[in-house]
Design brief:
Largest sheet: 11 strands, antiparallel
Number of domains: 2
Structural class: alpha+beta
Helix content: 25-40%
Order of helices and strands: EEEEEHEEEEEEEEEEEEEHHHHHH
Strand content: 15-25%
Oligomer: single chain
């Protein structure tokens, strides 16, 4: 699942919800596909009459009949038509594209998943195309000459991820460069900014800002307790109390909080791959109001946090002399890090208990554990930005 929340990009960039091509813009990812790669994305279009490649690259038609290709087409007649390494195999050309709505896809050698619906693909072995993958366009080797097809996907990308087997090798985040407001995609793995290689410029969506919360207070808990008490007693709520009742109140733990933790943990795990740490990005990110916290799920959160904590502490030690990062001083190792970093301290959430949490009876130390989790994640991303640029 693609994470579209706040990504802690370098401070020179501003994350946005999407980038949109309205004419002839496109991005060359510089990535040459492999036999084991897969592509996952979120897109949107309002255009109903253009045969458009959402992404693509393919081999030389003069030698192999375009057998070597990775393409996802938006066709006004047939809908969505994926093809890759399978002799131009199109499993089904009736994946409807509802205009004006976001759609998700995952395309690999073994399956195609569109808006949660899954289709199998036959397994085959072909040499991947030698051209690099482009977004909003098709990169093709036309009888020995590498060109970009004139057709363009007119629409938006909200994110795009490339994996090789289970490893994320590119995680493209829509953003713009603050210095000149040039829009493009920032790769959270290689820390590379990809800009428009075509004509015109991308339109950008709304800005995506930091949503990690680590300032919960006892007053927040008391506020929601008061509203719950009045509601259960049948007392009328003020407009402000109604808003609090209907919101994800800071004084209690909500599905949105757990999803935010999971998404941030997965994004952090992906970022750590750049430094050679293999932390699986498998935290749960689909919590709903109907879900119940179990002991197993509680332990999964703690274990994932500890896994990230251990990797980060190892990275601190590897960094050694941090004078270039934090300025001044001659010490090396952990002692040079700012004492404000929550990631330096032994985790206070080591015995976190989220099972049967009741806002009416919880100990106030519980909300400070919640704060500590999100401060840990915030500081971790901050550290990675400082050392990674």
């Amino acid at each position: 699942m693609i994470y579209t929340g706040y990504r802690f990009l370098p401070s020179a960039y501003q994350q946005v919800s999407y980038i949109e091509n309205t004419a002839y813009s496109y991005i060359d990812t510089g990535y040459t596909p492999t036999q084991d790669c897969s592509f996952e994305g979120i897109f949107y279009t309002e255009n109903s009459n253009i045969d458009m490649p959402l992404y693509g690259c393919r081999g030389d038609g003069s030698s192999d009949g375009y057998n070597r290709q990775y393409i996802l087409w938006r066709n006004p007649t047939n809908g969505l038509a994926p093809s890759s390494l399978h002799n131009n195999e199109v499993i089904n050309t009736s994946y409807g594209v509802t205009l004006g709505e976001k759609h998700t896809f995952l395309a690999s050698n073994t399956e195609f998943v569109y808006d949660g619906n899954r289709w199998g693909r036959r397994s085959a072995t072909y040499n991947p195309p030698a051209t690099t993958l482009t977004l909003f366009a098709l990169h093709t080797n036309s009888r020995g000459q590498v060109v970009v097809d004139g057709r363009r996907f007119v629409g938006r990308f909200y994110g795009f991820v490339i994996r090789e087997n289970d490893t994320v090798v590119m995680d493209l985040v829509p953003c713009y460069r603050k210095s000149d407001r040039v829009a493009g995609m920032f790769d959270a793995v290689t820390r590379t900014f990809f800009t428009n290689r075509g004509s015109g410029s991308f339109v950008v969506g709304e800005t995506v800002n930091n949503d990690l919360i680590f300032n919960r207070t006892e007053a927040d808990v008391q506020a929601i307790r008061s509203v719950i008490s009045k509601y259960l007693n049948g007392d009328a709520l003020t407009l402000a109390e109604q808003d609090l009742w209907e919101s994800d109140a800071k004084g209690c733990l909500n599905p949105s909080d757990l999803n935010r933790w999971g998404n941030a943990m997965n994004a952090l795990a992906t970022s750590l791959t750049r430094y050679g740490y293999s932390v699986t990005a498998d935290a749960k990110t689909n919590w709903a109001n109907t879900d119940y916290m179990t002991q197993a799920l509680n332990e999964a959160i703690i274990n994932k946090l500890h896994e990230l904590y251990t990797a980060l502490n190892d990275l601190f030690i590897e960094e050694g002399n941090l004078r270039a990062v934090f300025g001044g001083g001659q010490q090396t190792g952990l002692s040079t890090l700012p004492v404000s970093y929550a990631i330096l301290a032994e985790p206070s959430w080591a015995s976190l208990d989220l099972v049967d949490v009741d806002v009416n009876t919880l100990d106030y130390s519980t909300i400070y554990d919640w704060n500590a989790i999100e401060r840990f994640l915030y500081d971790a991303f901050d550290f990675l930005e400082r050392i990674g640029g």
